[in-house]
């Protein structure tokens, strides 16, 4: 007769393995829609801005953010879109400056 504790242990090990697989899943749509806290966002953004800079950007409405009680959350897909849009604006400004200087 099988030991019920061995059965439970085997099931728990299976559940742990499934959770680890989910946690270590390669980037896909789920990864695209994950939430960053402010520390993760500082590490993710180019230039690694400091927290006060992020707080100022949020207050100014410059960067997309959601408030969860007293904590801020940043959706990765929104941050990626913001970065792309910000890059386009900077490129347009640079091209505009080049036009003003007589460059093409």
Keywords:
63% helix; 3 strands; three-stranded antiparallel sheet
Please, could you describe this protein's structure?
This protein has 104 residues and is mainly α. The protein has a domain at 32-100. It is 63% helix and 10% strand. It has five helices and three strands. The chain has helices spanning 4-23, 29-32, 38-44, 51-60, 76-100, and strands at 35-36, 66-68, 71-75. The protein has a three-stranded antiparallel β-sheet. A hairpin with a 2-residue loop joins strand 2 (66-68) and strand 3. The chain is elongated.
Concise description?
This protein has 104 residues and is mainly α. Helix content is 63%, strand content 10%.
Mean pLDDT: 81
- Report how far the terminal alpha carbons are from each other: 83 Å
Strand content of the residues, in percent?
5-15%
What structural class should be given to the helix and strand makeup?
mainly alpha
The major beta sheet can be summarized as: 3 strands, antiparallel
**Helical segment tally?**
5
C-alpha-based Rg, rounded: 22 Å
Main sheet: strand order: 1-3-2
Please give the number of β-strands. 3
Cα shape: elongated
């Amino acid at each position: 007769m099988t030991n019920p504790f061995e059965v439970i242990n085997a099931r728990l090990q299976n559940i742990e393995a499934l959770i680890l697989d989910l946690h270590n899943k390669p980037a896909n749509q789920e990864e695209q829609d994950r939430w960053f806290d402010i520390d993760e966002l500082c590490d993710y953004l180019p230039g690694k801005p400091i927290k006060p800079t992020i707080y100022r950007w949020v207050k100014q409405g410059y960067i997309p953010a959601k408030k969860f009680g007293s904590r801020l959350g940043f959706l990765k897909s929104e941050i990626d879109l913001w970065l792309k849009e910000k890059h386009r604006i900077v490129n347009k400004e640079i091209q505009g400056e080049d036009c003003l200087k007589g460059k093409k």
